[in-house]
Amino acid sequence: MAVQKEKKENPVHIPMRWMRVEEAAQYLRVSTDFLNKARTTKNPNIPFTRIGGRVLYDRHALDSFLESLEKI
Questions:
Q1: What's this model's pTM, rounded to 2 decimal places?
Q2: What is the C-alpha to C-alpha distance for residues 17 and 42, in angstroms, rounded to an integer?
Q3: Residue 11 preceded by cis peptide, ω within 30
Q4: What is the signed CA dihedral for 35, 57, 44, 53, rounded to 10 degrees?
Q5: Kind of pairing between the strands at 18-19 and 49-51
Q6: pLDDT tens for residues 31-65?
Q7: H helices then E strands: how many in the chain?
Q8: Residue 4: Cβ-neighbour burial (10 angstroms; 0-12, 13-18, 19+)
Q9: Which backbone phi and psi does 7 adopt, to 5 degrees?
Q10: Which residues contact 11 (CB under 8 A, 6 or more apart)?
């Protein structure tokens, strides 16, 4: 009988620097639909990078974006 290792979950999730749409939406606590609409309309102009067909969000750029909103 093979012994299965239990998968331990990390209770504190630290996102990677580059996040997919779903991860960035969770990080910002918005819906994926909101991010997709913001990307196409540029309102608000949330920074993202496109590599091939993949859309990625940089955690540092998102943090800077949020900080710029605090000053408004």
A1: 0.74
A2: 22
A3: no
A4: -60
A5: unpaired
A6: 999 999 999 999 999 999 999 999 999 999 999 99
A7: 3, 3
A8: exposed
A9: -80, 115
A10: none
**From CA 34, how far away is CA 39, in angstroms rounded?**
9
Task: Give me the residues paired with residue 56 across strands.
Answer: 49
Distance CA 72, CA 69 (A): 5
The burial class, CB within 10 Å (0-12 / 13-18 / 19+), for 18 is middle
Phi, psi of 68 (to 5 degrees): -65, -30
